[in-house]
Amino acid sequence: MGEKTINGDWSEYLAKAISEIEKRFGVEALIVFGSWSRSGGGEWSDIDLLIITDEVRELNPLDRFTISAELKKYRVDAFFYTFEELESMSLKGNPLALSALIEGIALKTSPRVMELMRKVKKMYVKKGRTWLILSPNTKQAISNSFSIN
Predict the structure, then answer these.
(1) pLDDT at 129
(2) DSSP code per residue over 31-91
(3) Contacts of 58 (CB under 8 A, 6+ apart)
(4) What CA–CA distance (Å, rounded) separates 46 from 121?
(5) What are phi and psi of 108, to 5 degrees?
(6) First to last CA, the chain
């Protein structure tokens, strides 16, 4: 532990967590976000990992939390969402969704997640620690075409 980059111990932790996730779910996208995507994390940083899978649709929030807690042994903070949930969150300006989609490092993705990333990058800009909408007209135009299938 204590690696300053996502090499060595950190990449091993991440690989183990991803392997465990992919054994349980068909994964559409995996995106590392937070401090690891912005600056390479640090000794005390967990790896924030956004997992997009429609297979969590029927799971209640407590079950998702339990699965996420199981991945803590790899120093991974796992966030499970369906594509529709992520799309809705990003349209509403949810900071977790925006951080992942705009600043994140996609380890695995699909065409519709890539398109969502492209659209969200046009809608928002980060000023300090706050996400700002570029223009209400931009948001309306993009949200009118937001359903990506």
Answers:
(1) 84
(2) EEETHHHHH---TTPPEEEEEE-GGGTTS-HHHHHHHHHHGGGGTEEEEEE-HHHHHHHHH
(3) none
(4) 25
(5) -150, 140
(6) 41
Residue 30 per-residue DSSP state: E
What mean pLDDT is predicted for residues 82-96? 95
Structure tokens at 80: 């499970």
Query: In this structure, what token pair is assigned to residue 10?
Result: 């950190």
- Sign, CA dihedral 26-106-67-70, equals positive
pTM of the complete model: 0.82
Helical H segments across 92-146, by residue range:
95-98, 111-123, 136-144
Q: Are 82 and 52 within 8 A, CB to CB? A: yes
Within 10 A of 144 (CB to CB), how many other CB atoms are there?
A: 8
Residue type, 44: W
| Residue 55, both tokens | 């297979």
Structure tokens at 109: 């993705």
